[in-house]
Fold each of these.
Amino acid sequence: MARIGVFTCWCGENIARTVDVEKVAAAVGELPGVRCSLNYKYMCSEPGQALIAEKIASEGLDAVVVASCSPHMHLRTFRKTAASAGVNPYRVEMANIREHCSWVHHDRDTATQKATDLIRMSVAKVLWDEPLEPIRVPVTRRALVVGGGVAGIQAALDIADAGYEVVLVEREPSIGGKMAGLSETFPTLDCSQCILTPRMVEVGQHPRIKLYTYSEVEQVEGYIGNFTITIRKKARYVDIKSCTGCGDCWNCCPIKRNPSEFDYGLGMRPAIYMPFPQAVPARPVIDKETCTRIKKGKGCGLCEKKCLTKSIHFDDQDALVTEQVGAVVVSTGFKLYSIGKEQEDGKTSGYGEYGYGKYKDVVTSLQFERLLSASGPTGGRVVRPSDGKEPKNVVFISCVGSRDDAKGLPYCSKICCMYTAKHAMLYKHKVHDGQAHVFYMDIRAGGKNYEEFVRRAIEQDGARYYRGRVSRIYEENGKLIVRGADTLAGAPVTVEADLVVLAAAMVPAPGVRDLARKLNVGYDEYGFLLESHPKLRPVETSAAGVFICGACQAPKDIPESVAQASAAASKALIMFGHAELTREPEVARIDEKNCAACFACIRTCPYHAIDRADVLTPRGVFVKRTARVNPGLCMGCGTCVAVCPSKSADLAGFTEQEIYAEVEALV
Amino acid sequence: MDIGYYPGCALHGTSNDYEQSARACLEALGVGLKEVNDWICCGATAAHSINHRLSVALPARNLALAERDGFGEVLAPCPMCSMELLKASDLMKSDGKLRQEMGRIVELDFNGRTEVLNLIQAFQKVGLDSIKAAVKRPLEGLKAACYYGCLLTRPPETLRFDDCERPSSMEAVVAALGGSAVEWNYKTECCGAGMTLANTDIVLELSHKILTNAAAHGANCVVVACPMCHVNLDMKQADIEKRYGVRHGMTIYYLSDLVGRALGLSDEALGIDRHFVYGG
Amino acid sequence: MTAQFEPKIVAYVCNWCTYLGADLAGTNRLEYPPNVRILRLPCTGRIDFNLIVKAFEMGADAVLVSGCHPGDCHYTAGNYHARRRWMLFRRLLDTLGIETERVHFAWISAAEGKKWQQVIGEITEKTRQMGPYAAYQELSEAAK
C-alpha cells in the first residue's frame, strides 16, 4: 500500500487568501494512500523542505504530493528534496493550486473545492508513478567536424586543444574554405591567407586532429554520444604520405588549361594540380575528368614517370572508412548564388540583364577577390579578364540575388556591403587613377569598426555610391554600359565601366540538404540549417549531439563564424565533460511481448528514436520482430503512445495508467 | 486551318498595314484568320491605369466572344492586346468570384478554353520547319535587328513566353527564312510606346537610340511584332531625323512582312509599300 | 433557489505551451470560471482519444485539447499528429452519436494567458448553455 505525503502550501498569502488550506489539507488527508497531510506557509523554503524530509523519514513515505505553485517553478526543487530524503524523485507530483486556482478564482468555496479536486488528481496519479532512474548514455569523447573552412578549423582546434580527438572531413582537396581564396578581410584589411594559413597548418599538424581531405560523409548511424560515421575518401591518385609536394608532376602535366576551381574560372590549372600554394595538405590531386591516363586507361603518365617518390597511383579507388564519434559539428559553409540563367532549383531565377556569363568583364565578388589576391591568376593586378587591361572605371553592384523576391531570395546576405566597400578601397589602392562606382540599396555595416570602414571607402578612397539598382548592362565599343538609378539625386545614371563586380547572394553549399537528412537536422527553404532556437540556442539543432556553425546556418562574416564555431565546440565539450550523459527518464518504452511490429511509432517519431529490433531467446533464436525505443534519443513527447494500435508503447512519467487514474479522480 | 483573329483597335486603324501583312503571309502558310464576332477594345493602358475591373471586363468579353465563336486559338498580333487578354484570363482563372462577376457584367461566360497567341507564337504553331520548307526567296543579305519592345516578353509571369531579358524567338524565325539577325543591345528597350502624341520628345529620343544602336551593330533593318513600335520607329523616323540631324534610313519590317517576302509575296500584297520608310 | 448547473470541463494541455499559458493567466491574475480541471501532458501528441471518451465517461460535460501553435511544437510535430487524429476521430464520434460540439481544440502558446482566459470562459459558458452531458452516461449505461 502506498504511503503518500501531501503538503499543502499557503505560499504566504498567495494561496491562503483564497483557498482554505487547512480545510483542503484535512480533506485530502482522507484520500486512500495518504499517510499524512499537512499545510505550511512556505513549502519551498528551507524549513518547508526540511518538513517534507522529516515527514518522509518519520512516516516512511514513498511518494510526495506538494500542492502549491506551478511545477514549472518548483518541481525540480521538490524532486531534489525527496531524493535527498530517500524517495524516488519521480514519485513526486505537484498540484497547481496557485496559478491555476487561487490566483484566478475569487470565490473561496469554489476555489477550495477546486484545490481539493486538483490534489485528489495528483494523489491518484502519484499512486501509479513508477520510481524511475536517470538514463545514462555512454559518450564517445571524439568529435566529427564536417567542413574545413574557417568555422570548421576553429571548432576542430578548440575541441582538440581541450584534449579530445577530432575527425575533420573536408570535401575539397585542401582545407581553408572560401577564406583561403580571399585577398584581404574587413575591417582590418588583414591578408586573409596570412591569418588563416597558420591555423590550417596547426590543424594539419595537430596530434589530435585526424584530417580527411577530398572526402565526404557517406553515412551516419547512431545517436548522441554514439555515432558511427562512414566517410568516403575520394580517389586522389596521389599518396599524400610519400609525396613531398615537390611539384615535378604538375610542372610536367601536358593538360595545362583547365579552369581553376580555386580561381573561380579566372585562371588555369593542369590536370594534376596543387589546389593553391598554401594548401593543407600540401599535396597535389588528379582531376579524373581531364587526366588523359585516367580517362582513357592508357597513355601519358608523364607525372608518374617523373615522380621520384613513386607517389602517383592511377589505380587509386574511392575508399570507405568508419569513425566512431560522440558529437558532430557541421560547418559546411556557403557558395555564391548562380547569377546566370542556369539555376540549381526552379525557385530562383538569374539576372540575364547583367550579362554574367555573356560578357567576360562581368565577374562575381569572389572572382574579384582572386584578381585582388597577390597569389591570384593575375598576381594581384586588377585587370579585365577580356583583354588584360587595367580598368579605370569599375562598377560594383550590391544585392545581386539578395533582398529580391522576384529572383527568389528575400534575405540579406549580410557581408556584401562590407566587402564591396573593401573592394572599392583595395581597387583604389592598386589603381590610383581608377574610379569605383557602387550601386547599393542600403548600407549594412553593423559590426565593430564596420561603419567607419565604409566611410573610409567613400571619404578617403573616393568611391562613388549611388543609391539605386542597375537595370541593364550591355557592351558597346568594348565598354560595359551600366544603366542604373540614383534615387537620391532623382535621376538615372549611366556608367561606362571597364569591369563590373556583382555582389552575389550567399547560399548554402551544394549537397547540404543531403547531409542534413543523414544527420536528421532540419533546413529551411533555402537550405540553411535550422538551429534549435534562433536566439537562445543558435548552434544546437533538433538532432541531439549535432551542432552547426558558420555560414551553413545563415549568411555571416568571419568574426561571427569563428565565434559560432567556438560556441559549437563548447557544446561538444559540455558533452565530453562526463564519460556518460545523464538524461531525464521520462521517455517512451515498448512492451515487446505485445508489440505487433506494425512500426506506426517509427514512422511517427520526430526524433527517429525508435528502431526495428529482433526479440531473441537467451540462446539467440529468433522469436519475433519488435519496435524498440532508444532511450538515448527519445525526447518524451508520447506521440508513439497515442498511435500504437496495440497499446504496447507507453511513456514513463505519463503512462496510460497514470493518466487514466488522474482522469478517474477528476469528477 | 482557321484560327480566331482579334485585330484590336490598332490593326483596323492606323496599323492596317500590319493586318494586311499578317493576313497575307498566314494565308500563304495555309492559316485562315477569322475575326472574332463583335469584338471590342481590349482596354489597353487607358483601362488598366484607371479602373481595375474595367481592365478585366473588356478583355473578358472578348475572350468569351472568342469562346462562343468556338475558337481554340485566337491570334492577337498587337502585344498590348495579347497581354491584356492573357492577364485577364489568368486573373479569372485563379479567382472564381471575379470570373463570376465579369460574367455578369459582360453578359457572357468565360471558361478559359481559348489560347491567346502573339504573332511569333502563331509562326511557332505553324512550325519553323514548315515555314523553312515553304521559303521560296531566302532573305539573303538581310541583317535584322529583332526588336521586341516592352510587351512581347513582359511581364514574364503573365506571358510565359521566351526569355524576358534576352529573348531569341524572333531571331529563330528570321533564321528559318534564310536571313541573319544581329546581336544588339536594345532588344527590349522602350520605344516610347503610347507617348507618340502626348509626349513626342520622349518617343523621339528613345526611338532614336534604338535606331542608332541597331545601325551600330550592323543591322540593315529592324523587325518588329508590335504596331506601336512600328509607328514610333517608322512613322516618326522623319521627325527623329529632323530633331537629331541623323539620316537613319532604316526600314522597319513587321515579322509577317519578312515571312511573306520569303514565301514569295509581293511588297504590295504585304502592305510594305505603305510604310513611311520604304526603299522600294 | 435552484442551483445553477456548473459544467465540468476537462482540459488536456501540453506542458510547454498551454500549461505555461494558463500559468501566465495566473501570474496576471486573469479571472475565469473555476469549472476547468487541467491535466498536464508532455505534448498533445500524447493524447489518445480514448482519453477524451474516458473524460466523458467520468462525467465531464466538455473536453478541451490545447497545445502549441502549428510549427511551434516543442517536439516538432506532436501537435500536428493530434490535429490529424482529431480530424478522423471527430467522424467516429459523430457516427457513434457523441456530441462533437463538446470537444474543443485550441492552440494556446505560453504567451497567450489572455487567450486561455477567453477560451475557458467561452467553453464554460457554452457548455452551461448546452446543459449536462447526461446522454453520454445513458449511452454508457445502455452499452453495459
Note: DSSP finds five helices and four strands in chain C.
Amino acid sequence: MAVSLRGITKRFGPVLANDDVSFDVARGTIHGIIGENGAGKSTVMSILYGLTASDGGEILIDGRTVTIARSADAIGLGIGMVHQHFMLVDSFSVLENLVLGVEGGWRLSRGLDTARARVTALTRTYGLELDLDALVGDLPVGLRQRVEILKALYRGAHTLVLDEPTGVLTPDEADQLFEILRTLRAEGKTVLLITHKLREIMAVTDRVTVMRAGRVVAEVATADTSREALAVLMVGRALAPLPGKREIAGGPAVLATEGLSVTDAAGIRRVDDLTLSIRAGEIVGIAGVSGNGQSELLAALAGTLPIAGGRVMWRGQPWPSGLGPRDRRRQGLAHIPEDRLRMGLIGAFHAYESAILGYQDDPDYSAGPLLRTGRICDETRRRMSDYDVRPADVDLRSALFSGGNQQKLISAREMERAPAALLVGQPTRGVDIGAIDFIHRRLIALRDRGTAILLVSVELEEILALADRILVMVDGRVVGEVSRADATEQALGLLMAGVRDVAA
Amino acid sequence: MTPRRPLPAPVEYALIPLVNLLASLVVAAGVLALIGADPLDALGSMAEGAVGSAEAWGYTLYYATNFILTGLAVALPFHAGLFNIGGEGQATMGGLGVALVCLGFGGYSLWLVLPLAIAAAMLCGAAWAAVPAWLQARRGSHLVITTIMFNFLAAALMTYLLVDVLRVPGNGSPETRVFDPSAFLPPMDALLGLLGVPFPSTPLNISLLLALMIALLFWVLVWHTRWGYEIRAVGHSPDAARYAGISISRVILASVMLGGALAGLVAVNEVMGVHHRLFLGFSNGYGFVGIAVALMGRNHPLGIVLAAVLFGALYQGGTELAFDHPEITREIVVVVEGLVILFCGAFENAFRGPIEALFGRTGAKPA
Amino acid sequence: MDTVDLISVAASTLRLGTPLILAALAGLFSERAGVIDIGLEGKLLGAAFAAAAIASVTGSPWAALAGAMLTSIALALLHGYAAITLNGNQVVSGMALNILISGLTPTLATAWFNQGGQTPPLVESQRFGAVALPFADDLAGVPVFGPIYSGLLSGQNLLVYLAFLVVPAAAWLLFATRFGLRLRAVGENPHAVDAAGLSVAGLRYRAIIITGALAGIGGAYLSIAQGAGFARDMTAGRGYLALAALIFGRWRPAPTLLACLLFAFADAAQLRLQGVSLPVLGVIPVQFVQALPYILTVILLAGVGGTARAPKAIGIPFVKSR
C-alpha cells in the first residue's frame, strides 16, 4: 500500500471534520475520494500533506508509520500535492515556477539550464507538454494545472494528490488531465483524486472511497459500481419529506433574464447566454456545484457585476445595464448574499448598523442626513426577537454572532421589507439546524405573500424542500429544469455532478 | 479566522493608548539620556511648563486647538481606510483663505468676518486636498505620496504669494500686513474676564470652542449620519460597501476633501486668533502631529481631544524644556511624536497580545 | 544653451540624481519583496546625519559611510519588525520613522555639536571628493567625446560612480541569481514561496537589509559627498521622489534609473531657470521653478496610476493559509 490512513480524526471547534477515517491506496493506482462539499475530503488531504495536524489516528507510507508535521515532511516522503488554488507566481515563466526553491545553485542561469533538460524529459515521459518559457499568468487554467503537476513530479513525488482538480477546467481540459493521470499511473505513480464529480471517478479511477459527513461510508472498486450507486452513497438517504404538490401562483414574471452573459474580473465567461424568469409567488431554485456561474449570476442581477451580454428584465421592462444596487433595492429587489461575512454584513459594525446595510438611505432609517438610530435599534430589536437571534444585543459587533444568527439578521433585513423579488445565495451554509429551519419557513412565508424568489444553493435538500421549480446550472448554462413534483435527489445529483444526460 | 472578543472599551480606548504612550516616553527618555540630559528632570520641567500654571494651561490648550483640528483631519479619511498626510499643506492654504477674508473685510463686524473666514479656510483646505483625493479615487495614485508633494507645493505657493504678492511693501519679512483689529479673534482671557474669571494673557482664543464644536460635529457625522455610515463601510469592507450600492470613489473624494477642510481650520486659530497676519510656516508641523493624535485617539473625537491636549502639553512643555535646557531642542517633541505614531500605529499589535492574554480574550468565539 | 551649458546641466543631473537613484533602488528591493517602504526619506536623513557626525568626529569618510549604512539598516529592520513580524500597517510604520528621524537628528546634532541642529562643516579630508578619470585632461580637447568624457563623466564624486554601478548590480542580483528569483516570488505570491518550503519572513528581512544599505549610501552622499555636513531636514522630500520614480519605473531598475534622472534633470534645470525670462511667460517665480520636481511627481503618479504593475502581494501582511 502506497498510502494508508488509519482512524484519522480531526475536530474544528464543534465540528467533527474527520471521524475515524481509514482507507488504503495501492501503489500504481488512481484512487478516488468522493463526497459532497463538507464531507471532510479536503481535511484528510490537509492532514496528509502536513498543512493540518490530526487529532488522532496514523498515516502509513509504504507500510511504515510516519509523522507529517510540515509540507516539507510530506514532500520528503514523496507526496506531492496539486492544490485547488494554484501556488504559482503569475509573472514568472513556467520554468522559473518549477525551480522555485530547488534552483540548483545561486547562479540562476546555470540552474535553469540544468532544470530545463530534466523538466523536458519529464514532460515527454508524462505527456505534460508545456512551453517552459511562457509566463504562467498567460496560460489557461488547464495548463497552469500542468505546471503544478510538474512541480510535484520535479521534486520527486511518487504519490500525487489532486484536490478538486477539475473545478476550474473545461470538459476538454478535464479529459486532457485524465490522460495525464493515466500516463502517471502507467509510469508507476500513485494518484489520489479528491472530487465531488461522479464523472471523474467513473472515468479514471481504479478504486473509490466515499465520504459523507466526516466518515468513510464505502470503499469499492470503480468497476464494481456505478454513478447512480455512488450518488446515493454520497448524498445519503435522509430525504426531507417533500411537501405535497402545490398550485403555483402563476403570477406575472417579476425578475427575468434574456440571454444573459457575464464575465468575471479575469475575463472568463461565467454565465453563458442564460434565460430564466421568476414569477411572483414562486421559488425558483438553482442547483449546482458552486463555481458554475451561480455567484456571477446573482451578482449581475444584484447590480454589483457588469453584464457582458443580454438583459435583465424587471416586471417586463429591461433594466439599464449600469443600474446600481441601490436603485435595484428601491425598486424592490432584495439580496441575501452568498458571502455573508464579506458582503452581507460588516463585521466591525454593531448589529443595528449591519441591519440597515444597503438601506441606509431609506427614509425609515434616516431623516435627512441623520440616522434615526433610535428607530433603527427598535426595529433591529424587533427583528431579533422575531427571528430569535441570540444574543439579542443590538450593540454587539456583527462578527461576533454565530453563523446562524448572522444569517438570520441578514435574512430579516432583506425579507422584512416585503420585497417584490429576493435573491438568495447559500442561505444556510455554516448555519445550525434550528436556524436553517427558521429561515426556510420564512422563505416559504415570503413566497406565499407573493415575492418572487431566486434561490441558489449547493444543498440538494434545501432546494428540494423549498423550490417550486428547479434549474440546474453547469458551466454557466442551465442544463435542465425540473418541477418539484418530478424532482428526486438522484436525478438532481446526477445533473449537478456534470452528467449532462440524465438518462445515461 | 476567528475574531477575538473585543476588549472592554476602557481598555481599548484608554489603556492600550496609554501603554503605547508610556513606551514612547520610555524610549524618548532613553534619547534624553543618550544626549546627556536627566530624563526625570526633563520630565519635571516639561510637566511644570505644560500644566504648572494657568498660563501654562493657556498655551497647552492653544496648541491643543490645532491638534484637535489636524487630528480630525487625519481621522476622517482614516475611517475610509485612507492616510491623509497633507495636513500641513491644507492648513497652509486655509491660511490663505483666512488672510484674504480678513484683509478684504477689514473693519466689518466679527459676526460677518468669522463665518466667512471659517468658510474660506475650509474651502481652501478642501480644494488643496481635492487633487490628491481625485487621483486616489480615479487613478489609484498613492494618497500618501501625493499629499506629501502637495505639502511641498503649498509651501512653494505660499512663499511666492507672501514674497511677491501679499507682502507689505518695504517690509523685509514675507508676511501680510497685520489685520484690522476688528478681525482679531477674542482671546480666551478676555472671554473669561467677561465672566469674572481671571486668566493670564495667552494665545488661547475662542477657536478652541470652534475646535470642540467641530469635534462634536465629527462624532455626529461619523456615527450618526448616513454619510458617516458610508465612510465607515468603505473603510471596513469595500465588498460590503459595493453590495450596499455605496460609491467608493465618491466616498474617497468626500472624506479626503473634508479632511482637508478640517486641517484648513487651523488657520482660524493661528492666523486669525493668534498672529493676526499670514506668514510663512505658521502650520509649523501641526499637520504631522495630527497623525500621532489621530492614531493615539483611535480616530474617535473624544480620544482625539484627549490626545490633542496631551500633545499640547508636550509641545508647551517642550518649549519650556528647551528654554531651561539649551542642549535639548524643541525637536524632542517631534521625537515623541514619531514614537507615538510608531507604537500606536505600526507596533500596535506588539502590546495587544499580552494585554489580551491578560484580560483572557484570546480564543474562539462561541459557535 | 551651448555645449558647455549642456554638459554642465548633464553633470549636475548625474550629481543630483545619485541620492535618488540609491534611494529608489533601495525601495526597489523592499517593494519587490512585498514590503511597502514609505520610510526612505527617514533612512536618507538618518544616514546623512550619521555620516556627517561620524566624519566630523573620526575624520574618516569611509567610517562615516559604514556608520551611515548601519544606521539605515537599523531603521530598515525596525520597519521590518513592524511590517513582517508584527504584521502592522506598513504605511504608518514608514511615516512614523520619517517623523521620528526628522525630530531625532536635530536633537542629537544640537546636543552633540551645539550648532543649532547642524553638524560642523566638513573639510575635504572628511568627505568623498571628485574623482578624475584617467586621461581626463588630455582627452578634453577631443571633439564631441572629449568634453563629455572630461566634463561629464570624469570629475564626478566617487559615490556617484558607485551609484551608477549599483544599477546593473541590482538588476543582476534581482534577475540572475537564485536570491533574486525568490525575492521577486515572495512579493508576487508569498504562499507559493511558503509552499516551496522557503521562509517568507527570512527573504523579506534580507530584502530590507539591502534597502537599508543602499539608502545608507544615499544618505551619506548627501552629507559627506555632495554636501559638507548635515543640516535639518536636508533630504527635502527626496525619499518620496525616489518612491515616485520607483512607481513610475514600474519597479524595474533601468526605467527607475531614467525616472530618477528625469527628476534630477528637473532639479538641475530649475537651478538654471531661476530668474531667466521665458518667452510669453516672462520670469517664472523662483518658487514655482523650485517646485518643479514635486509637480513632476504628481503628474507622473497621475499618469501611471498607483498599483498598475506593483508586486502583487505588496503591503499585504503574510498570514499562512490553512
Note: Residues 55-324 of chain B form a domain with the ABC transporter involved in vitamin B12 uptake, BtuC fold (CATH 1.10.3470).
